[in-house]
Amino acid sequence: KPPFTPLGILMEQLGLYEEVKRHDEERMPTGTEKLSELLQGQPTLILLDELAHYSANLYDRERDWHTIHNFWQQLTVAASQVPNCVVVATLPTSAPYGLRVGPEALEQLRQIFGRVERPLAPVKGLEVYEVVRQRLFRTLGSEEVHREVARTYFEFYQQRSNLFPMAVRELSYRDRIARAYPFHPLLIDLLRERWGTIEGFQRTRGVLRLLAQIVRDLYGKSTFPLIHPGDVDLSGHVRQMLLRVIDDR
């Protein structure tokens, strides 16, 4: 049942499906010029998510694989030529998890969108801590308690300056601790910055899944005010999750 392709789906939503019906049914690209004509007129915002996963699933169907990448190419160029049309696409920082052709699909998409993109990072700096907290907890108690915990850690680091690096003894790190509560910032940073470089580990979703399991393992057991990397139980579910990511490596 039509529409069959992303081209058909987009044009149907714009009320222009009849203009591309034959191309959709025969899975043929329209060409950049035709797409530019179709996108003229009313202001248009096109939102595209999970492109890498979608493309990777077409890898074994050679014609569809090439067709879809031709379409992304034509769409991005066409949209860049129309003043009142914007395409917003999400490209992950890592390849689609569990798909053997994910890296190739992601690299092709980066090349296609890289020619005309204006990159925006949805989460930057300390914002990552708030994202993690919002996704994993309904409530985290009083902000005053968070600040008190951060102050206690900060004083502990200051009093033992010979044992800890300068980074954790800077005043800004006290705010970092409060923002990351109930996790120690080092745990989140380690997962995002070090594990995030491993192919197949999704920096946001992968971190959230791991942290959720870590909290589950420690709930009712830990007596520390923060969850540190050393608190992670590597003998159970977390170990299995990590081993699935690194595979034989």
Low-confidence parts lasting 5 or more residues at pLDDT below 50?
Answer: none
Number of helices: 13
Radius of gyration over C-alpha positions, nearest whole angstrom: 23 Å
The largest β sheet comes out as: 2 strands, parallel
Name the shape in a single word.
elongated
Q: Supply the helix-strand structural class.
A: mainly alpha
Descriptive account of the structure:
With 249 residues, the chain is mainly alpha-helical. It contains 13 helices and 2 strands. A two-stranded parallel ribbon has the order 1-2. The mean pLDDT is 87.
In short:
With 249 residues, the chain is mainly alpha-helical. 55% of the residues lie in helices and 4% in strands.
